[in-house]
Amino acid sequence: MAEYSALRVISEGLRGNRGWRPAWRKAEPKPRYDVIIVGGGGHGLATAYYLAKNHGIRQVAVVERGPIGLGNVGRNTTIVRSNYLLPENYHFYEWSLKLWEGLSHELNYNVMFSQRGVLNLAHSPEQLDAYAERGNAMRLAGIDADLIGREAVGQLCPGLDLSEEARFPVVGGLIQRRAGTARHDAVAWGYAHAADRLGVDIIENAPVTDFIMEAGEVAGVVTPRGEIRAEKVGVAVAGMTSEVMRLAGIDGLPIESHVLQGFVSEPVKPLVNCVVTYGAGHMYVSQSDKGGLVFGGSLDFYNSYAQRGNLPAVHEMARELLAVFPNAARIKLLRSWGGVMDMSLDGSPIIAPGPLPGLYLNCGWCYGGFKATPASGWCFAHTIAREEPHALSAPFTLTRFAEGRHIDEAGTGAMAGLH
Amino acid sequence: MLIPCPVCGQRDAGEFFYRGDATAARPPLEEEAERPWVEYVYARHNPRGEHLEFWQHAHGCRQLLVVRRNTETHEVFEARLVGPFGEGG
């Protein structure tokens, strides 16, 4: 019988719920592993899971500076989509979306993946043309995308202001119906649970304070809970990438850390039934199962390691929300939070061996980290196990900046804040 | 967050446009090797803590400033003019 199932809930209910085990063990670090993953966020846990599942490497430790789930995996707006324009991105994110579609079964953990659709609003005919280009690129790659007019937008999401009086009237939109949202905490817990059951040690409250170097090769990490050795060390620490890599003597990565805020309102009755992105600014909103409007938008635009943002961004996002949902004007904001993004200088991620022997790097996720979680883990595990890039992540090298092979989806150049 | 503009005084950060890392020096224009240019454009120290950065007072005096700021606490230590009106300009 699966560890989590309806039958199990009933049978445990009859036996006083005494048979449950913790979703993952509080592992003590062993002196040696085959692979250490630094960073117990979504990407690190997914990497550990796929190392064990796909590659049979079960001597794996995930070291996390705090408890599981308090980093960016719990600080996003839970959107999952693959509606990109550039082939390097849409192939990768589409594989991620396919993994999302089977993730709850794969992990035996309900990640509440809800394919409610992601609707990108267009506010001018030119913007609709740009969405047509993106949608066509996606459809040529076998990814679902539909260009729809204003009337269809209204049928899809009746709460939107579709009047001519809107500041930037909606003319249509691009919808990816297979896209949607997932319960972000459950993704962390699910991967932690599934990796644990395959033998992975998840070591919490163990910030890496140094790397063990032997003859120029990375041979392990130092934590307050002791030295841990391994032949291979993978780093997946998002906004902390520059600081952690500096411990290994690597400086000058093409990464800036910026804070991205998210917000949730008090619960209201169903208003937003898909994910809506505002095209005349930058704001995305969905409604959680509890009823809260979950929304976010742009960075605070200056380098930040603070896991909290400033008020001007709150003000801006609230105004953009009201531009399309004026009926939300009297809804109270319940909470806001900030996550520290690893903004790469072309807006695309890095999954690559190196830059030192024995070291593997996973970073540069910008706004896209949450939806990338399964594919990032899948490709990073492959990169570590086989010591060569996975075909889907092969373009995401660290050397592409020097080689002129940028993957600049937004076309903004080397300004981290603008991607 | 307030930035002490040397021309206008303490002003809200919203009046400024952030132009990023101010520590990288542009190579001389005669430089023909690729590496120094790649590093100038793409290499970031990205510290957690004190950071030197360009802010332009776009909605004020329009001057370009170098600001020393803590990236973790958002504490601003100093702002000075650069360019024609700055030191050595």
Short description:
The complex is a heterodimer of chains A (419) and B (89). Chain A is of the alpha/beta class and 419 residues long.
Fold blueprint:
The complex is a heterodimer of chains A (419) and B (89).
Chain A: H1 6-14, E1 32-38, H2 42-55, E2 60-63, E3 79-80, H3 87-101, H4 103-107, E4 118-122, H5 125-140, E5 146-149, H6 150-156, E6 172-176, E7 180-181, H7 184-197, E8 201-203, E9 210-214, E10 217-223, E11 226-235, H8 241-247, E12 255-265, E13 275-278, E14 283-287, E15 293-303, H9 311-324, E16 333-344, E17 350-353, E18 359-363, H10 369-386, H11 400-403
Parallel strand pairs in A: 1-2, 1-11, 2-8, 4-13, 11-18
Antiparallel strand pairs in A: 3-7, 4-6, 5-6, 9-10, 10-11, 12-15, 12-16, 13-14, 14-15, 17-18
Chain B: E1 2-5, E2 9-12, E3 17-21, H1 34-42, E4 50-56, E5 64-70, E6 76-81
Antiparallel strand pairs in B: 1-2, 3-4, 4-5, 5-6
Can you give a write-up of this model?
- With 419 residues, chain A is an alpha/beta fold.
- Helix content of chain A is 29%, strand content 25%.
- Chain A is built from 11 helices and 18 strands.
- In chain A, strands 1, 2, 8, 9, 10, 11, 17 and 18 form an 8-stranded mixed sheet that branches. In chain A, strands 5-6-4-13-14-15-12-16 form an 8-stranded mixed sheet. In chain A, strands 3-7 form a two-stranded antiparallel sheet.
- In chain A, helix 2 (42-55) runs parallel beside helix 7 (184-197) and helix 2 (42-55) packs across helix 10 (369-386).
- Chain A is globular and about 65 Å long.
- The model of chain A has no long low-confidence stretch (mean pLDDT 96).
- With 89 residues, chain B is mainly beta.
- Chain B has one helix at 34-42, and strands at residues 2-5, 9-12, 17-21, 50-56, 64-70, 76-81.
- Chain B has a 4-stranded antiparallel sheet, with no helix packed on it. Chain B has a two-stranded antiparallel sheet with strand order 1-2.
- The longest helix of chain B has 9 residues, at 34-42.
- Chain A binds chain B through residues 240, 242-243, 251-257, 301-306, 310, 312, 345, 401-402, 414-417, and chain B through 1, 12-14, 18, 20-21, 34-35, 38-39, 41-49, 51, 53, 55, 69, 71-74.
